[in-house]
Structure formats: structure tokens, C-alpha cells
Specification:
335 residues, alpha+beta, Aminoglycoside 3'-phosphotransferase, Chain: A, domain 2, 2 domains, six-stranded antiparallel β-sheet, 52% helix, globular
């Protein structure tokens, strides 16, 4: 399907198409090319990701791909009504999930040293506004739906649970505000290359693939919080050893500052999982997906008390220096 595009637009030929880690790809001798659909992406954003990728490679991260330009020097290739970009990987490696904390810390260390301003994928310093906007939108939607009454079990759960998660969100926002007022950021708190939604499979399941189109520029605690959130909900009974090990490994490379610890906790408290579940349900047109999301919401609500305990004991779990750094606790979470 893409062989002609690769030959005509990039001069790549003599290989074969395949699928790897759910990506459309093309293999040619030692090179692997990922064909990325970039519909809706702006030229400035793609150019910025290209510059970041080149800089990370300059700093020694050879697992980051080269973002190839077309034969006529363009970032985007228009083909059959869609926009594509091409990523080139050399000698792609099998993924070893061990020591993910240390690997992520090194990635963040390199990502802090961009010799140019990052604007189009920048998220650092924007959490408060983004969280409040998301909450306001959902509250408006909830009020509108409330007047109509629930049509099914999912809506009944949504109607009953939203006030609780609104309160949790307000607590997260206040914790964030207090952090920004009370603590001065350190060098480790400058922006770095993060991921839209970090998790255990962010670099693949079997093959190690770092995809620039997953990246945002944010505070490193974004990735830490989302990795921990995903691991907690993956198995809320056995998460402790893995999360403790992940944080210990990370800090062997990057020691967290008081500001980092507090940002991490604020983001964990923000109920992103709940927002994404509700939003996905009302966007979906698939009855199968809606049933899955209903089951997921039921699970979240059933685990809400356990999650409070997880948050209340989080600093203790990961051996955070609560006294030394004077990290404030949220008293109602500690029971």
C-alpha cells in the first residue's frame, strides 16, 4: 500500500511492508521505517518534534528515530488524501521492561537540555488551567444531563459519582496552587520531553520504539504520575513493589525536589482516569466499547475507597522525604 509512496517521496525501496507494535512499517536491510498518519498535526508542531528528536540523538539517545524529510525537503508527505511522516530506526532492539525507572530518568535528563524554545507541544505550567477547564466542561455537561434523568446504568453511576470526583479535582487543584505559591522550583524542575500518557508500554511491548508523536514538553512528574496511575489500576492489589522499585530506580538518576514531589502528588490526586472514562463513553459510537467503559467505571467507583488509601499512603509507599521536604498531606485521605 505504501511502497509506491516510499519510493517516490523518500527514495526508499528494496524492502517489504509489515506491521510492528500496531504501527504500519517498512523494513529495508537494517533500517525500519514507521509510517505515521499525522492528519490534524500542524507544521510547527512536526518541525518542533523533528528538532527535539535530533537533539536527543545528539545527546546520545540512539533509540530515538530520525524524522525523514521527503525528497523535496518537506516534513509532511500528502498521499491519497492523508498526511504522513516517516520515522527511521536503525537496528531496532527488543524491549526489556526492566529498570524502566532508570531509563525514563535518563530520557528526562537528556530532554531538559533543548537549546531552543519549545512552544507548540508545551504543557508545563498549564495544569491548573487545563484541569479547571476540564472540570467546568464536565460539570456543565453533568448539569444538563441531570435535568433529563439517567437513561441507563452508566448515566446513573455518572450522576451519583460526579460530585465526589469534582471535590477530588478541587483538592488536586488546590494542592497544585499551594505548591506553586510555597515552593521555588529547582533546576530539576525545568521542562523536559515527556509523553502524552506514560505507561509501561509507552516504548512498545516487544520492540523498543520511542515515538516522537507521543511527546509533550512538560514537568517530569507528569510521566511519573501517569506511569504510577496506570500500574495502580492495572492491579490495585499488587502494585506496591513495582511502584516502589520504579521510583527508587528513577531517583538513582534524577533526585526529586520538594516541588517535584508535590507536583507528582497533585497529578496523582487529579482523577484523570475518571474524566477519560466519562468522556470516552459519550464520544463512542460502539456499543461494545460503551459496555467496556461501563464496566471500567463500575470498577473505578467500587475501588474509590481503596484509591483514597493509596493516595493517603503514597508518600510512605515510595519513601518520600516528607519531614525533610515538609511535604503536606491531605488529612481526609489518611484514615
Amino acid at each position: 500500500m505504501f511502497e509506491k509512496m516510499l519510493r517516490e517521496r523518500y527514495g526508499v525501496k528494496g524492502g517489504y511492508e509489515l506491521e510492528i507494535e500496531n504501527y504500519r512499517a517498512y523494513k529495508q536491510e537494517t533500517s525500519l521505517y514507521l509510517i505515521m498518519n499525522v492528519n490534524g498535526r500542524k507544521e510547527q508542531e512536526l518541525s518542533e518534534l523533528k528538532n527535539i528528536s535530533e537533539q536527543l540523538r545528539t545527546f546520545g539517545d540512539k533509540e530515538v528515530p530520525v524524522l525523514l524529510a521527503t525528497n523535496d525537503g518537506k516534513t509532511i508527505s500528502e498521499w491519497q488524501g492523508n498526511n504522513y511522516c516517516l520515522l527511521q530506526y536503525e537496528n531496532i532492539k527488543p524491549l526489556h521492561a526492566r529498570k524502566m525507572g532508570k531509563k525514563l530518568a535518563r530520557f528526562h535528563f537528556r530532554g531538559r537540555h533543548m537549546p531552543f524554545p519549545v512552544e507548540s507541544i508545551k504543557r508545563i505550567g498549564q495544569w491548573k488551567e487545563l484541569w479547571e477547564k476540564r472540570l467546568d466542561q464536565m460539570e456543565g455537561f453533568w448539569n444538563g444531563k441531570l435535568n433529563q434523568g439517567p437513561e441507563n446504568e452508566f448515566e446513573k453511576m455518572f450522576f451519583d459519582s460526579f460530585p465526589y470526583y469534582m471535590g477530588l479535582t478541587e483538592n488536586a487543584v488546590q494542592y497544585l496552587i499551594d505548591t506553586e505559591l510555597d515552593i521555588k522550583p529547582e533546576a530539576v524542575d525545568t521542562g523536559t520531553v515527556c509523553h502524552e500518557r506514560c505507561n509501561r508500554q509507552i516504548w512498545g511491548r516487544e520492540q523498543l520504539i520511542k515515538n516522537p508523536y507521543d511527546w509533550v514538553f512538560d514537568h517530569a512528574s507528569r510521566d511519573l504520575a501517569e506511569y504510577i496511575r496506570e500500574r495502580y489500576f492495572y492491579n490495585s492489589q499488587t502494585y506496591q513493589p513495582e511502584i516502589r522499585k520504579f521510583m527508587a530506580e528513577y531517583q538513582q538518576v534524577n533526585r526529586l525536589s520538594p516541588f517535584s514531589w508535590r507536583l507528582l502528588f497533585a497529578r496523582l490526586m487529579f482523577p484523570l482516569h475518571y474524566f477519560e472514562c466519562i468522556e470516552a463513553y459519550y464520544i463512542s459510537t460502539s456499543e461494545t466499547e460503551k459496555r467496556e467503559l461501563e464496566e471500567k467505571l463500575y470498577k473505578y467507583l467500587k475501588q474509590s475507597s481503596e484509591q483514597e488509601q493509596f493516595l493517603g499512603r503514597f508518600y510512605q509507599l515510595v519513601e518520600a522525604p516528607v519531614r525533610t521536604y515538609k511535604l503536606p498531606t491531605v488529612k481526609w485521605l489518611i484514615k
